[in-house]
Amino acid sequence: MDWKRGAYPEFKIEDAIAVLFLLKTPKGRKQISEELNLGEGTVRTLLKKLSSIGLVESQQKGHSLSEKGVEIIQEISKLFSEPLEVTPLEGFVTYALVVRNPPEFKSIELRDEAIRFFAKGAMILTVQNGEIVFPEDGRPLRETLPELSEDLKKLPVENGDLVIVTWAENKADALKSLIHVALSLKGELLPEEIKKLVE
Description:
By secondary structure, this protein is of the alpha+beta class. It contains nine helices and seven strands; from the N terminus they run αααββαββαββααβαα. The protein folds into two domains: 3-76, Arc Repressor Mutant, subunit A (Orthogonal Bundle); 79-190, Gyrase A, domain 2 (2-Layer Sandwich), CATH 3.30.1360. Helices cover 43% and strands 20% of the residues. The radius of gyration is 17 Å and the shape is globular. Mean pLDDT is 93; it is low at 1-7.
């Protein structure tokens, strides 16, 4: 039996954050389980933990964020934006988000982090003079990938921001690898309640 799906309801901080973003609209346990590729037992445990610290409420129509949950998501959104599904790259499910005020980084290390977390690939971009560009040479993304560039305009970007794009075989891996890269840059600044979830 695959232990991940079995008796040990294990989840990572990436799962917890993905669930909080998903619950901006009410969802049932089965839907969360399918979208994040987690066992239902794991989702039950995670939701129980999130509601025990007052972030999630459960009603007949499913689970949703409490007022405190909404506040926590707003705090997280000051660090990095909500993941956005964008045009598929290389035929894979693709997501993007913005990391605000990024610390110093090496693109190659961030790409490696994404791939270690089951992404098929990742792209690290920066915003300069209102334009999303490749940090290595300042080349505008729109010159190589106009469709993706158009999609990324939906993100709340400002000069100096970092834009991370990851793609994977399924939604769960694309989403969680993306959040993982954002956390590798901003993890220490997460609200304490979220950090404690996985201690």
